[in-house]
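Sample intake sheet
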Amino acid sequence: MEANGPRLGETGMTLKLALALGASLFLIGACASEPSAPPPSVERPPPPRPDPAPPADQCGAAQAQRLVGRNRSEIPVPVNPGLQRVACTTCPVTMDFHPRRLNFFYDAETGIIKEVRCG
């Protein structure tokens, strides 16, 4: 025989399930943080200006251009050896830049000056 209506104990289970679900939703909502405010804007300093380019010819390379195409033996003996460098075009040299240093680069096989520049 079947009785109409809820069976014994069903109402209590439904109520417990509804309460557990409601409590879970409440706890999840309580744990959620409020949206954070955007960070305060910080004024950034302007980007640094690039160093001004040194004058084009601080080492006298313009006057020494007449030696390009000549033998390296024609390179004058420097008054200040620290401000002149002579190297072959395939030789390793330091990459430090000295605007007042005069560089002569020659072909290692022929001894012919290929380039004269500051640095």
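Comment: The chain has a mean pLDDT of 82. DSSP finds two helices and three strands in the chain.
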